[in-house]
Amino acid sequence: MSNAGICLLALLLGALVPQGAWAAVFDHREAPMWQMQEYTLKNPTWRGNPFDVVATVTFTHGKETRTTGMFYAGDDTWKFRFTGTRTGEWSFVTSSAAPGLNGHTGTITVGPRANARVKGFLTHVGNKFAIMEENEDDLEGYVYQVFMNQQDYEQQYRDPSRILGDPSRAHLIDDYWENTRDNGFNTYFFAVFYSWFKMGALSIQDFSGGDDPALDTPDPALFDILEKAILHAHARGGRTHIWAWGDNDRKQTPNHLGGGFRGPRHRRLMRYIAARLGPLPGWSMNFGFDTIEMPNAETDCKWWAKELNGMMGWPHILTARGWSDPAFGANSYAGFGGNPYDLESTDKGPADYAEIRQALEAHPERPSIYEERHTYNRWRCWPGHVEDPERLDEDGCRRLIWWETMAGGMGGFFGHFSERFNAYGPFNPDGPCGYHPESLKQAFRTHRDFWKDGRLKLDMAPDNGRVRDTTGYCLATKDKTHFVFFVEDTDSVTLDLSGMPDSQSVFAVNTRAKYQETDKGRLDAGVHTIALNPASDWVIAVGY
Known about the structure:
This protein has helices spanning 3-13, 172-182, 220-235, 264-277, 297-312, 353-361, 394-406, 438-450, and strands at 29-32, 37-42, 55-61, 64-69, 71-72, 77-82, 88-96, 105-111, 122-125, 128-132, 139-141, 145-149, 187-191, 239-243, 283-286, 318-319, 331-333, 368-370, 374-375, 412-416, 461-462, 467-468, 472-476, 483-496, 504-510, 518-523, 527-542. The chain is globular and about 75 Å long. It is built from eight helices and 27 strands. The longest helix is centred in the middle third of the chain and has 16 residues, at 220-235. A hairpin with an 8-residue loop joins strand 7 (88-96) and strand 8 (105-111).
C-alpha cells in the first residue's frame, strides 16, 4: 500500500496504520486550545490483564514536555489523549515494552481557543485559585464554589436518580448541570466510591470480597459517563468536582481492596484514572470524606496525591479533607472540630469572616477550600445539639459565600443532602432542610454573576479599614485601581479610596436580589459616602 493510501486509511478509521513492523507516524492534526484530542493504537500481542500493559506518550513543545499514559479501550485497542496548554506545534513519541505501542510519533498544532468561555486547567497563584485562559501562562483569579444535589442526581445509595449508577442515566447530566446553574453555581459534584470498578457500587460490600475478579479491572462505562459530565460542564464554562472515595467505616476506601491501599488493584486503577482523566481540563478531585477513620490516613492520602500527580501530565487540584501537605493542590478543611486533623474549622464552622481570613492567611502558598458541605439549614435538622443552629439559614448561607470570597478567595461547598442518605444528612423537600428557596438561589446566582470574568484579581488582598460606619469588608489590588466592598444590612456606606491613582467608575449590586448593576458614577481618590437603596447586603465595585 502506498503512503498516501496509508494516510487515507488512518484518517478514515481514526486509528494508526503502521508503517514497517510496528512504529509509524500519525497524521498531523490541528486543534484549538483546551480541546482534548484522542489517538488510537492497535496492540494485538497483549497477554494477561490488558489494564496492566504500561505505555506512555511524551509531548514536547520547545523546552516543555508532558508525559501521559495510554489506557486500554477494549479488544486489542489502546488510546491516549492530549490537550494543548500553549499554541504552536507539539511533537510526540510513544514508549512501551509492548511492540504495538512503542515508537510511534506525530505532531499537532495548537491554535487559539475557539470559545472565550471555555477555560483551561485550574491552578493557583499563592493562596488564590486561578484558571488558565488563553494559555497556561494567562491566569485569572477564580472563585471556586461547588454545588451538590444529593437528593436528585448525586446519590450515595441505590436510586434511579444516581447518575453514576447506570450508563442509561447519561441524559441526567444536562439536568444536573441546569440545576447547578439555577442554584447559582458553575461547578457540580460527583462521588464515585467503588463505582470505579462496577458502575453503581458504593463499597467493597457490593463485591464478594477484596479479591473479587471484578476489582481487577476498572469499569469503562463509569469513566464514559463521568467524562461526559466533565466535558459537558467544561464546554459551558464550568467545572466538575469529584470525590474519589468515601469513608472507611462504610467500607468505601481502597484499603479494603485485596492488596490494600497501595496494592496492585489500587495502582492499576490510579494509572487508568491518570491516563483517561489527566489530559481533560475541567475537574478537581478530593480523596474522600472522614479520612481520619483510615488506619494510615494522612500518610496514605499524601501518597495518593503524589502518585496521581506524577502520572497525569497536566495539573489538577487534588485534596484530602483535613490534611495539609505540599502534595495537595489546596488545603481542604474538615468542619466538625475536635478531630486530630491538620486542617479543621471550629465545630460546625466556620464561625465568621475572621476565621475564614485567618485560615487563608495561615497558608499563603496554596489555596484553601471548606470541603465540609454547608447544606442549607443543615444544623437546624442535625440529630444532636448544635450551638447556633441558624448558622446556615438563608442569611447565613448568603453571607458565608460572600465572606469566603471577600476573605481572599476561600473555596466552598453548598447544596442538598438526601432524605434517604442517613441520619446525618437530613432532608425534607417541604421542611426546613429542603431545597434552596428561590430567594436563596437568586442570591447565589448574583454572587456567581458578580465574580465572573476575573473580577477576583490575583493580587487582591483584604483591606477592611477602608469601610466606615457599617459592617463591611474590602478587597483591593496592590496598585489601588480595583476595589470590591461587601457591606451588610445598610442603606449607605462610607468608603475610603485613598491612594487610588485616577478616578474610577463605581457600581453597586444588591446581593439579595436579581443581579443588576446600579451605576454610581465616577469617584476620585478620597473618602466618599454612597447611598444604597433599599437597606440590604450590597457589593460595590470600583474600577471595573
